[in-house]
Amino acid sequence: MRIISKEDFNKFVNSLIKDDSLNVIGVKAKGNKFAFGQLESAGELRLDYDVTLLPPKKYFFPQRETLVTYNVANGFFAKDPADFKPTILLGVHPYDIVALLHMDEIFRETKSDPYYFEKRKASIIIGVNIQNMSKWCFAPYMGCATVDYGYDLMLTDLGNRYAINVGSQKGEALLEKYAKNVSDALARDIQLVGQKKREIMNMSQQKFNFDTELIPELLSKSYEKSSFWEKHAEACLACGSCVLVCPTCYCFDVKENPDLSLKEGERIRTWDGCLLEDFAKIASGENFRPTRPTRYRHRYFKKGKYLFDRFGFISCVGCGRCSSNCLPDIANPVNLFNDMYNEVTNTGEQVAPVAQPDVSIETEGNINYVPKLATIVKKVPMSYHETLFEIKLDDGSNLNHKPGQFVQVSVFGVGEAPISVSSSPTKKGTFEICVRKIGSLTTKLHTLNKGDKIGIRGPFGNGFDTEFLKGKDILFVAGGLGIAPLRSMLNYVLDKRADYGRVTLLYGCKEPREQLFGDEMAALEKREDVDYKPSVDWCPENELWAGNIGVITTLIPQVNFDPETTYAIVVGPPIMYKFVIADLKKRNVPDDHIIVSLERRMKCGVGKCGHCQINQIYVCKDGPVFNYSKIKGVPEAL
Amino acid sequence: MKPKVAFFDFAGCEGDELQVANLEEELLDLLDQVEVVSFREVMKEHSDNYDIAFVEGSCTRLQDEDRLKEIRKNAKYVVAIGSCATIGGINSLKNYQDLDDVRRTVYGDKANLFDTYAARPIDAVIPVDAYVYGCPITREEFLHVVKALLLGKKPDIPNYPVCVECKKNENVCAFERGQFCVGPVTRAGCNSCCVNEGTICWGCRGLVDNPNENSQKEVLIKYGLTVDDAINKFKLYFGWQERKR
Amino acid sequence: MENKNFDVEVHHVTRVEGHGNIYVNVRNGTVERCEWNISEAPRFFEAMVLGRKWSELHHITSRICGICSIGHTLASLEATEAAMGIKISEQDLKLRKIALHAENMQSHLLHVGFLVLPDLMGVGSVIPLASSNPDEVKTVLRLHRLANEMSDMLCGRTTHPQRLLPGGFSKIPTMKELSGLRERLKASVPDLQAAAKLFQSLAPKIPDFVRETEFISLTKPDEYALYDGKIASTDTDSAPASEYLSYTNEYIVPQSTAKRAKHVRDSYMVGALARLNNNYDLLSPLAKSVAKMFNLKPVCHNPFMNSIAQLVEVVHSVEDSIRLINELEAAGLKSQPDYNNPKIKVKAGRGVGAVEVPRGILFHDYTYNEKGVCTKANCVIPTNQNHGNIELDMKALVPKIIDKKPKEIELTLEMLARAYDPCISCSTHAVKVHFV
Fold it and tell me: Which among A243, A339, C277, C289 would be 20 to 30 A from A258, CA to CA?
C-alpha cells in the first residue's frame, strides 16, 4: 500500500490530463447527479460520489458502435479498431469493477468480442472505495462493496491523503511516471483502510431478509407463479431504464445504416433491453415474450439463475441503479426477492442454497462480425412467396456446414437475418437457402437476381448429429417451411443412404400451392428406399391433389415404425410441435428420440446479443437443433 | 429512373417542410436520388404524376378530405410527416373544447363563415404507408424513411419509449429534477433531443403502440402533479390517440 | 387599352408559406375585381391556449410557425414575463438577441435565396439553379447552414426551440462555442458580399413600383430594434408596445380566413422594409454599405425592395451578433446549472410581448389568473397586418401592367405577394378583441 497527499494526487491527475496521448475520464457532477466524463482539470473530479448515472461499461461496450462498414462494389469490412486512445478511468467503485469482470467472462465465452477487448486492454482502472453510498445500493449483500482484484490502482480516502493499493504492473508504472511524493503506507494507514472497509459493509440502507446465495433456488421455485409476476410488473412502463443503466447487461441490437447514395454504409450495434416490447419479435410478427410480466420475469431469471448456471455468479453487483431509475419503483431486486422469499417460505417450503456449478470459460477465437461476399448463382421460385437461392461464396470456399445449421444473410442497405441452409454439405461448391418473403430483408432478397451480391456469415448453430443417427431409422416430420432446414439433413441421408436405416418423410402444407421442392418430392415418391407421405390441410376445388388431406398429425397413424429404433426429426411452425410430439409420444417414442429445430430473432448468431434466448438457452448457439428431452422442461421453448 | 416525390401541406406550421429545406447541402444529395415534382413552398411547377407524397399538417375541415383522397389516388406511397399529420399534433388541443365556442372565440359573429371539425391525423382519412413522427421531424429520420422507401424496406421506427434514448444519453431524469415528463409513454426516435437540451419530453411523437397510461399517470401524481394536471399533460399531443383508445 | 378583357386566377400561390389566392378580373380595360384572398385552414391558437398553464404557452405558440418559431417563442415569453413581472438577466437578454438574429438570417436567406431568386433568374424554383448556378446556390446554402447552426447553438434547434424558457434558458452555450461562432460569422463576410453582388447584378429585374403607404415597426434609440422597443410609424409618433391595439385595429373580410389591419391609412406594411424605413441610421456599417449598393434608403415605398431590405438585414444580423458576443465575453459569461429551470413566482396579470420576426412586428398578449392559467390570449401576426397592403398594392399595380401578357401579369402579381414574404398559416387565426 502507498500513500499520497491530496495535493500531490491532484498534481498527479493534472499531469495525466496534460499528456495528450491519454484519454482521462473521471467522475464529475452532472446536474444533481454524477457521471463519468472527460476531465479538463483535477478540480472537476468528485471521488466522493455515490453512484454514476451510467456505469463505466459505456467505455468498453458503447451505446452505439460501428461493427462493419460496407460498399456495394467491394463488400464488407471490419471497422478498424486501431483508433482508440489509452484511457484512464478514475474513480470506479468496487461494484462496477466486479461488473466489468462479469462482462469480461461473458464477452469471451466461446468466442471473444474483439471490439470490447481492444478497449479493455487499452485502459487503466483506478478504483476508489465508496465514501457515500446511494440509498438504493445493496452491494455489500452481493459481495461487491469492496474488491481485491480487477483494478490497476485502488484509492481509499483517509482525510488529507489517499491510500493506494497497487493492483498491477500497469498501475505501478503509472504512479512512477506521473505521480510524485508517493510514500509507503504506515501501519496506521493500513488499519484505517481496514476500518473504512468495515464501515462500508454497514452503509447499505437496503436490507435483504435472507442470504442472497439462496436467490437461484428461490427463482427456480417461482417461475410458474404468474400472479406474483403479474403483481410486480403491473406498473411496468416497458421503458427499459432498468436494463440500460445496469453494469452487467449486455444485450444489443444491430442495425444497418446506408448513406443516401445507397452505395455504402455501416452496420451499427446499439444497446437493447429485454424489457422492451419488441425485443423477442420476429419478422412474421410473432412475439415470443409479448407481455410485461413475462419480460419482467426474464430479467430476474437471467441475472439470478441463467447466468448463475453458466458462470457461477449472480449477475447483479447491487449498485442500485435499476431501482433508482425505475419511475413506478418496481425494479428493486431487494423488494422483489424479499417478497419472493416470503411467498416461497410461507408455503412451508424449505430453500437451500444450490451447489456452485462447474464453470470453465473456453474461448476459441474472435467473433466474426464481417460477412463474406457471395453471389447468387441461381434463383428458382418455389411458391407464391418462397424462392430457392443457390449461393456461391466469392472466395471459392465451401460453406462446410452441418445439416441443420444456419447462415446470417446480409443484403446491402437492409441488414442481416438468419436463414437455415437448405442443401446438404455433400453438395459442394454452392449451397442453397429457401427463403419466404415476410420481412424487410427477405422481401428485398426476393427482388435480387442471378449475379447479384449478398453477404454470408456462418455457418452457425449446432446442426443435426449425423454421426449419432447412423444406423437408426429416421422419421422426418416437416410442417410447411420446416422442409427447408429438414432438406439439408434429408439430402445428406439420401447421399449416404447405406449409412442409415429406414427413412420416412411426412410433409404437411396448408394447401397444394404451398408445397415446396415439388420435383424433388415427386422423385422421392418413386424411390423404394424412402417412405414419402405428403398431406395438405385442405385442397381448393380447382386444384388436384392425390395425397392425404388433413393436418400433418393425420399422417402419423399411417406409418409403421419401431419406436425403439426410430428417431423423429420434427421441424415446423411453433404451433405444430405440441400436437406432433403428443402423437409421437402416444406411439411410445421416447423423449430423447425426438429432435426439433427452433427459430427465434437473432442478431449476432453467437450467443451474445440476447435476442434468441429461450429461458437459459441461446437458440443460435445451443441450438437451433434440440433434443426434446433437454428442452421439454424449458417453459418458453415450445 | 428516379422516383418522383411531391410535398403537400394542410393545417400545420410548415416546420417539417422547413426541415427538408434545412438539409442544406444534403438536399443536393437527396435530389440525386429523387425528382421533386411538386413542393409549393419552394417551386412553381406542379405535377400530379408522383410516386411518393409527403404530407404535412392535420385534416381540420371536410373540404381537406377531398384533397387528401386525390393525393392518395395519385401516389404509390403516402408518407405522413410531422406530429400534425401523424398523430393530430398540437391542433388536436382544440378538440377538447366545444368547436362552436372555439370558432366564436376566434371569429366572433362571423364564426359560421369558417368551418372546422376535430383536427385529425391524415390516416383518419386515407391509408398511410409510412410515418415520420415529431414536432418538428428530424432530418435524420426523414432521410431514414426516404432511404427505406428507396430500398423497398419497412422503415425502422422505434416502438419503445424516449426513456431508452434518454438513458443512453445519460440524462438526469426529469422527475429527479422536480419536473414532469411524458417520455415513458412517448415513442422514441428523436434521440431524446428535448431532454438533451435541458428540458422535458412533451410527447410530440405520440404514444408507443402499447403505453401503460395508467402507470404513467400514477407516476406523475406520485411525483407531485395534480390529477387534473396529469390529465392535461396527456391532452397536449395525445388528444386524437387517446380518443381512439 | 379599353378592350382589354382577361382574368387572372392563381390558386395557392407558390413559393410562399401557406395558401393564398389571387383573383383579378379586367373588363374593358377596367379592373373590376382584384383580390388577395386567404383560404388557409384556420388553426384557432388563441382558443387552444385557454386553460393552459404559463409554463406551456411558449411551447404551444411556437407551433404557430415553423419558420418564425424563435420569434413566436420570444414574443410569448415576453408576454408571460410582462404579465408576471419577471425580469431576465443582461446575459440572457443578449443571448436571446443573438437567437433572434439567427432566425432573421435563416428566414431571410431562405426567402431571398430559395423563394425570390428563381423569379429574378427566370426559373420556376431553386432546383434547376443547383445545376446551372451551383456556386451561387452553395453560397446561399452555406450561409443558411450557418444561421441554422447558430440557432442550434443558442436555442437547441431552429424550429420549436427547446432552450427558451420563461425567465431564461435551460442551457446556454459555452464561451468557447460562442468564440467559435464569432469566427464563423466573421468568415462569412465574403459569402455575404458574393450574395449582395449577385442580387445587385439582378437588380434591374426588380419591378420599379411605388405606392405610398404607412410603415410600422419596433424602434429603439440605441439599437436596430428586433427583440423589443416601442411601436414606430412613418406617419405618427411612437407608442409603447402595450398600446398595440390602437395600431392594429383588426377586422374580418368575408372572403378571407385571415384578418386585416389598418392604422391611419387604409392599410400599412410591416417587415424588413418597414424596419429599415424607421431605423435606417442604426444599421451596422457593413449593412449600410450593402443598402447603398441598391440605393436603398428611407423612406422607400417600393414593396419589391422588401427582399433587398432583408438582404441588408442579414448582413446587419451577422455584424450585430459579433458585437453581442464581444459584449458577453467582456462581461464574462456566467455559467448556469445543467438542466436549468428558472424559478417563477406565479401571479395574475396581463402582459404584451412585441418582437420583430423576419416578416414584421408580432404581438402576443396574454392574461393569466392567480394560478398562472391563461384566461385570454391575442396574437397579431405580421402577415395579417400586411394583407390589406398587399391587396391595395395589387389594385394599384394592375393598371400599370395591364398591357402585358396575362402570364406576365400573373407572374408580377405573384412576385408582389412573394416580396412581402407572407407567412400565411401563422396569420390564419385572429381574435375578436373584447378587452375591458
Answer: A243
Contacts of A290 in chain B (CB under 8 A): none
> Which value, to the nearest 10 degrees, does the dihedral of the CA atoms of residues A466, A472, A473, A476 take?
-20
Q: State the Cα torsion A425-A427-A429-A430 to the nearest 10°.
A: -80
The yes-or-no verdict on residue C430 having pLDDT over 60 is: no
- Nearest-angstrom CA–CA distance, B200 and B233: 12
Asked whether residue C135 is assigned to any structural domain, the reply reads yes
Alpha carbon separation from C93 to B102, B196, C78 (Å, rounded): 35, 23, 11
Q: Which domain holds residue A189?
A: 2-201
Q: Could you tell me the domains of chain B?
A: 4-151 (3.40.50.700), 162-244 (no CATH)
Whole-complex ipTM: 0.93
Q: Which of A25, A34, A22 is nearest to A59 (CA)?
A: A25
CATH of the domain at A391: 2.40.30.10
Question: Distance between CA atoms of A96 and C231, rounded to whole angstroms?
Answer: 62
> Which residue bears the cell 404559463?
C54
Q: pTM value? A: 0.92
Compare all CA atoms of chain A with the CA of B171 and give the residue at the minimum distance. Answer: A53
What residues form DSSP beta bridges with B77? B52
* Within a domain: C28: no
How many Cβ contacts (< 8 angstroms) between chains B and C?
Answer: 183
Residue-wise DSSP of C155-220:
HS-SSS-SSEETTEES----HHHHHHHHHHHHHTHHHHHHHHHHHHHHGGGS-------EEEEEE-
Q: Is C194 exposed, middle or buried (0-12, 13-18, 19+ CB in 10 A)?
A: middle
Region class of C224: left (phi > 0), else alpha (psi between -120 and 50), else beta: beta
Position C42 confidence tier, pLDDT thresholds 50, 70, 90: low
Q: Is B61 touching C (CB cutoff 8 A)?
A: yes
β-bridge partners, B5: B36, B52
Provide, as residue numbers in chain C, all residues whose Cβ is less than 8 Å from the Cβ of B42.
Answer: 15, 114-115, 125-127
Q: Are residues A513 and A482 in the same domain?
A: yes
Look at residue C191 in the predicted model and tell me its pLDDT.
96
Q: Is residue C278 part of a domain?
A: yes
| pLDDT higher at C246 or A82 | C246
Only one residue has cell 419406436, namely: A563
The enclosing H or E element of C45 equals helix C45-48
Residues in Cβ contact with A396 at an 8 Å cutoff, skipping those fewer than 6 apart: none
- Express each pLDDT in A376-435 by its tens digit: 999 999 998 999 999 999 999 999 999 999 999 999 999 999 999 999 999 999 999 999
